[in-house]
Amino acid sequence: MAILKAVRGTRDLLPPETALWNHVEATARAVFARYGFGEIRTPIFEDTALFARSVGEETDIVSKEMYTWEDRARADSDGAQSLTLRPENTAGVVRAYIEHKLADTGMLQKLFYIGPQFRRERPQRGRYRQFWQIGAEVLGPAWSGADSALRDAEVLEMLSAFLNELGVKGWRLEVNSVGSSTDRPRYIAALREALEPVKHRMSADNQRRAESNPLRVLDSKALEDQDIIDGLPKIADYLDGASREHFAQVLATLDTCGVAYTVNPRLVRGLDYYTRTTFEFTVSDGSGLGTQNALLGGGRYDGLSEMLGGPKAPGIGFAIGEDRLILTLQAQAQAVAVAEKKLDAFVAPIGIGQNAAAVALAQELRRAGLSVEVGDGTFRLKKSFEAADKLARRMVILGEDEAASGILTVKDFSAGEQTKVARAELADALRK
Ligand code: HAM
After folding, report:
1. Of 21, 235, 379, 432, whose Cβ has the fewest other Cβ atoms within 10 Å?
2. Which residues, 6+ apart, have CB-to-CB distance to 386 below 8 Å?
3. Do residues 114 and 127 make contact, with C-beta atoms less than 8 angstroms apart?
4. Considering the entire predicted model, what is its pTM?
5. Which residues of 140-169 are buried (b: 16+ CB within 10 A; e: fewer)?
6. What is the pLDDT, as a whole number, of residue 152?
7. Protein residue closest via CA to atom 12 of ligand 1
8. In angstroms, what is the span from residue 82 Cα to ligand 1's centroid?
9. Quick check: CB of 318 below 6 Å from ligand 1?
10. Tell me, what's the pLDDT at 289?
């Protein structure tokens, strides 16, 4: 019979690698808590219209990468509904913000999420069809300060603190401003005009983008088009006074906080809802991901809530590609210490008559906060030693003599020595 495998573009995450995933997520939770974020969990599937209206019909994500299906009606009264596995989480968070009337609190909302997203992309290293994002959104009514440049800088400073705390080396922050929702159409019109006489000389992909979504031409990596792209109008020349001032304040605040950045005037990002500040973090050295792969991206989206029928709620957010972050940590050898953490002890019963006592001893040690694995009384001593050496720092031998005397034999693998320890002192001895 043919063996069934995980679907192309999806993968299983197994121990010990999952320990690194948990370490990354625990670090994110700890860092985000210091900045006043709370966790939000939104459904993995949503009404298809949510993504079409926010991410944008013309984007690659909506036009070709979504997992969408007609969900059958369960009763005559319900119609079939078009549903989509979420390709990103910002739309879901803003929908929830509107649905739960979070604006009525009058407070700035700082929400983070950790979870899988789904895009039908061509799978490669660091690009999957089910991938994980750790993201956050900061939004609220304008009077909550949600549209302040302070928030943009705070989010960027938090991300730099997070990457530093994980020990990511060689990260780079690129920032840009794509202007307000009125600057953008003016700029897009200028781009279209500039592309018109030259687009026939560009790659097929960029000819198509020049028509459907000219902003996307800017972040094209097609080598043959770079000269033309360099000569296109720059968004900076189309920003109104308020957007220009906002961007200057973001950069000045980053300078004050000592967060290094590069302004990249071509950074437009692939989702339609962005206004003003956009950013990406990349790692150049040792990630093995190539320069096409941003570690994380985000930006401001001052009109998104209105696009979804909600009240005005300017916001800014980001999503970290967790798969890519893990690959980077592994490539930079930050992963080793986390993945190789061994259990505190392996309890080896000698003979099946000691199995029950071994489980009870493990229970006692676990209650004391130690991590413990139990062998089996059918194992020969040599097999117990081998298993214990792979899994744990120490092995506790529990034979008839030990059970009767309450004095246990403890083998320490790193020191290579064997000692006798009274049961009452065992937990403390294993903690050392
Ligand atoms: P995005 O740039 O589409 O933005 O995705 C953010 C990050 O998710 C990327 O930088 C990348 O690290 C990771 N990512 C995207 N696609 C894949 C994939 N197929 N496989 C592995 N990793 C991937 C957003 O999703 C926005 N919602 C971010 C945001 C939040 N903007 C404002 N708030």
Report:
1. 432
2. none
3. no
4. 0.91
5. bbeebebbbbebbbbbbbbbbebbeebebb
6. 98
7. 321
8. 23
9. yes
10. 66
